[in-house]
Amino acid sequence: MSEENDELLKLTSYVQISKYREKTLKSIGDEVKIPTNIARDSGIRTNHISKVLSELKGKEIVECINEEARKGRLYRLTDTGKNVLENIKENDNKKSMK
Q1: DSSP conformation letters of the chain
Q2: Single pTM value for the model
Q3: Which one, of 63, 92, 55, lies nearest residue 80 by Cα?
Q4: Interaxial angle between packed helices 79-97 and 3-16, expressed in degrees from 0 to 180 and rounded to the nearest 10
Q5: 84-97, pLDDT tens digit by residue?
């Protein structure tokens, strides 16, 4: 196991221990979304989404592509975020096979 892989596993675990973080990641997926749409798609209240997005941003799992905007900020997964989401989906698939 490489250090890079360990880091990915730690981040995956970090996301999975919070249903909010996991739902947020799945909601964004391959798209670019504003927090309102993430909230609607994931069933999480907007005030929680802001906190979750800033946590994920701190871990470089998501990025905001228009930081200067006060409203309508656009978020997408970083490459790391995409790898984390891939891991989560693989784990979900393993669980559903059991």
Answers
A1: --HHHHHHHHHHHHHHT-HHHHHHHHHHTTS-B-HHHHHHHHT--HHHHHHHHHHHHHTTSEEES-TT-SSS--EEE-HHHHHHHHHHHHHHHHHHH-
A2: 0.91
A3: 63
A4: 70
A5: 999 999 988 888 88
CA distances from residue 32 to 2, 37, 45, 73 in whole angstroms, order as listed:
30, 10, 19, 10
Nearest 5°: CA angle at 81, between 52 and 84?
100
CB 91 within 8 A of CB 73: no
Q: Which residues of 44-78 are buried (b: 16+ CB within 10 A; e: fewer)?
A: beeeebeebbebbbebebbbeeeeeeeeebebbbe
Q: Which domains does the chain have, with CATH numbers?
A: 3-97 (1.10.10.10)
Closest CA to 12 of 87, 82, 94, 93: 87
